[in-house]
Amino acid sequence: MAKRVDKELEQFRQVMEVPSTFEEGFSWSSLVGAIFVAFLMVPGAIYMGLLAGKMEVGAAAQWVTVILFIEIAKRAHRSLNKSEIFVLFFMAAAAMGMPFSGLLWNQFFINSDAAAATGIADQLPRWYAPARDSVSYADRTFFHLDWLPVIGMVIFGSFFGELASMVLGYGLFRLASDIEKLPFPMAPVGAQGIMAMAEDIDAKGRKDAEDSWRWRVFAIGGALGLVFGAIYLLLPTLSGALTNESIQIFPIPFSDFTQKTGRYLPAFATGMAWDFGNLITGMVMPFFGMVGSFIGLLVTLVANPLLYKFEILHNWKFGDDTIQTLFKNNVDFYFSFQIGIAVAIAIVGIWQVVRSVRKARAEAQHKGQRDTSGFTPPQGRGDIKFWMVLLCYLVVTVTYITASALLLRWHHGTWHPEGVGRANDIRNVILVLLFLGFVYTPLISYVTARLEGMVGQVVEIPMIREATLILSGYRGVACWFLPMPLANYGQMTVFYRQCELTGTRFPSIWKTKLVLYPIILVSSIFFMNFIWGLDKVPSSAYPYAEKMWELNALNQSIVFTSTMGEYSMFEQAFNWIYLGIGSLFGLVLFLTMWTIGAPIMLTYGVVRGLGQSMPHAIIPQFIGALIGRYYFQKRLGLKWRQYIPVVAAGFACGMGLITTVGVGITFLNKAVISLPY
Hints:
Elements: H1 7-13, H2 31-52, H3 56-75, H4 82-95, H5 102-110, H6 113-117, H7 135-139, H8 148-179, H9 187-205, H10 213-243, E1 255-256, H11 258-261, E2 271-272, H12 277-284, H13 287-309, H14 322-367, H15 386-412, H16 422-455, H17 464-471, H18 492-501, H19 506-534, H20 543-560, H21 569-573, H22 576-596, H23 600-609, H24 615-636, H25 640-671
Antiparallel strand pairs: 1-2
Helix pairs in contact: 2-3, 2-4, 2-19, 2-20, 2-25, 3-4, 3-25, 4-9, 4-19, 8-15, 8-16, 8-18, 8-19, 9-18, 9-25, 10-25, 12-24, 12-25, 13-23, 13-24, 14-16, 14-20, 14-22, 15-16, 22-23
């Protein structure tokens, strides 16, 4: 049987090739760029995340850092190579990591209506948030003794999480790329912007204007971002800071039509996200993925009124807005249905891996020899021994399990809490952690690494943490906030592939991460505290957080109540029949698409558009995909696939820069101390 080729994925595969040599990208002078990002761009990113749920400032920080250092190097009669640009780009992104960003959410959740109504607030452990009577909430400060356990856990989790991600992701990359020779079709998309900068330097050095198209394309995207950002984000930011009344030409985060259309489309959320970035996202992403999302949205548009008619979506009522509609539908049907869909995705992903492994073995046996070239890594790439990867995995996993056991002991005050079976509950939680750390995590990480390498997809077995903790019999909510050895390191393989495509030595990345870690910690905690001190979070000053955080709190409460030992929201939302329907539907969908030879991204797109994906963004993304496919690609051909990632990078840079200006003015305005005379 001939091998089936997905033409769209082949386009992504052919964008770039691995270079023959690798160069060092880390330099101490470039560390100034990380400090620049950490102390100038991080506060803007935090503020805009609360205001509009957007992180363009993060992308802007990366590009501004790269452009700034390119210009500085030019005036020092030096040019930066691809590896140095990649490390600068990575360094700026890492500086925006903000490990303490969750603290703002923690202080909100423990005081939220959802946590209080479900009885969760009084059971949250001290390493998640201080008790509700802590004076730190009134003072709005994290620099208080009550927050020390929380800050300590953030430092612990971020350190071991980064260590495991970098080292174990590298080990999986060696397996998937070097040994199994997988193509990683989506990796070139992320590396194109870096290559654009490097090639632009070369072109300008040769005075060759024909080769400098990338800079012009980047500038076009930047101009679009500046213009739209001024209208969409700068205007409401400045008006809110200067007049205490935000002026929004385009509603943030979206316009909500659900309360009007509910009469004709019951239980279906309608609206429009006016962010121009959604159009560009639709152009960047694979076309059939966007088409599939739109098809899934249409299926939901038909299905929800029918489900309402047959009283499956029975909690919805006319007048509910988007947030209420999504949450009620989630409880009534989609919570279980989407778990079933995710189970189908996991089954298909594992089947793809098993099938490809068998095929590779059959081909090797047919050739009568085994390809061992992958066991010897390319010279000069800076690889490490496999035993070091395995040692890191063992140390991190054992440390996580030990820390979790000690935290449970601290929370309950004893290894034998009162109540029938409570001591066994703690023992069972430790057994769950052993299973997750030594069985599930390596299995799912390897499966994901292979899927990323084959088709650019991630696989997750849904609700694995929830299922194992519920089955443990534990009573309380502390188990949900333990540092679990549960992760999917397979996603890091794409990053290492991008590193390889740009010819960057791997030790450059590891040294950068090690040096950056303390800088990231300091900037993150300082600016989180500063922004909380400016105003209550969430509040009317932050439209996105005010609208979306309560929905997120309600959805999280569904899961947390499952271990409280009484009838809970989880029992209301979890339904085995709906889960089975979702699994069957997903499997039939994948089988049908595979049988008719549909593009694989179309299948995953349909799954994305089904049910509870925010419909307000899918429509503009689909419009963007149509414009890119049937206008720009017809005019430019396959070069469009090289142009649009650079346009997107420029747009993000422009949006980030213009909003950073507004954020800076806001901070200055709110930090002014009014004198009594």
